[in-house]
Amino acid sequence: MSKMFVREVILSNAWLKKIYVKQRRKSDNDLMNAEKLNKYLEEAEKIFLKQPVNIRVGLVKDADNYAEEGLVKERAYYPKYERFLKNNNITYSYYDPFRSDWIDEAEKYDLIIWHTDSDPSTQDIAKGKIRILEKMKKNCFPSYDEIWSYENKVRASYLYKLYELPAIPTFVSHSKSEVINYLKNATYPLISKISTGSASFGVDKLDNYGQAKKVVDQIFSYKGKETYFKYSNQKDYVYFQDFIEDATYDLRVMSVGDDLLGYYRYPNKGDFRASGAGNYEKKEIPTEALELAYQVKEKFGSAFLATDFVYSEKRKQFLIIESSIFIGIDTCEQLSLDGIAGKYVRVSENQFEFKSGKFWVQELTLKNVIEKLVQ
């Protein structure tokens, strides 16, 4: 039983929820009241547009189980967006795309900003509604093109192949007979992933043909293979990546406009998964990785894109693991060199300068989105 499932069960019970919230405030320290939230937001520099704009913005609040308690989650995106809108005197109000009147309410706005949750249900809702909003000539962040590959590793792999980007060798198929033939000649171990999953959930290492065949039989069964999303099984597709045996870390690089930030992640001892392990290091990032992250963002056509890499010493190159338009953000210090917080600024191809400061990447992103909108 996953931690996520247990958490949802607790939050569905009012009595258990009060105990859970109280305990989280003591231990995790990730639920904030208004005073604490404001102090937290003000740790970063204010980001301003080059010139004033006259637009109306519909801001979607993150899914929040704690609003009735007067609390906001530390990782919530909308308070960072809201700070930017206030600092730039942009007219906005809250917009709820989950209501039945979402089409009528959208008429009020020129731009709708929606940090969607990453679960399959929300992604399905978001893709359907953003498609309609854009047909209404409403600008959306994320756009339909951006949301199309968000939390969908299979679709992202199509883009890597289309644009000849150096991803970890990946095998994706919806044909069981082809998959079985592939497994007979594969080099093990293989890394198997579900298409929608983060923090290493839904990632398994298959050490031999027998293990892989068992998994494939489940995937291509009538119900498919269970995932940690109890309502969504892995059905009729495989997503296999080569195991990069000489990779000792993940490198996450965030690219927004000409700004880049990032950090290193390391697996726990005895594990191969760095994502979700909580072992971070912030230090200089090689030019090769910065330029590659920038190019991936440009090819994807995203306002913001975080791309995760491994480095293969044997291949002497960085290889893409996956990319995402939304990630977990705990701090306005997403990069630091020698203890100094900042960001890289791309001045030309393979040329980057370091600028000190603390920045919310959500604000950098919104600046980029709005300035492109009013050009």
UniProtKB/TrEMBL annotation:
<feature type="domain" description="ATP-grasp">
    <location>
        <begin position="157"/>
        <end position="349"/>
    </location>
</feature>
<protein>
    <submittedName>
        <fullName>RimK family alpha-L-glutamate ligase</fullName>
    </submittedName>
</protein>
<keyword id="KW-0436">Ligase</keyword>
<dbReference type="InterPro" id="IPR011761">
    <property type="entry name" value="ATP-grasp"/>
</dbReference>
<keyword id="KW-0067">ATP-binding</keyword>
<keyword id="KW-0547">Nucleotide-binding</keyword>
<keyword id="KW-0464">Manganese</keyword>
<dbReference type="GO" id="GO:0016874">
    <property type="term" value="F:ligase activity"/>
</dbReference>
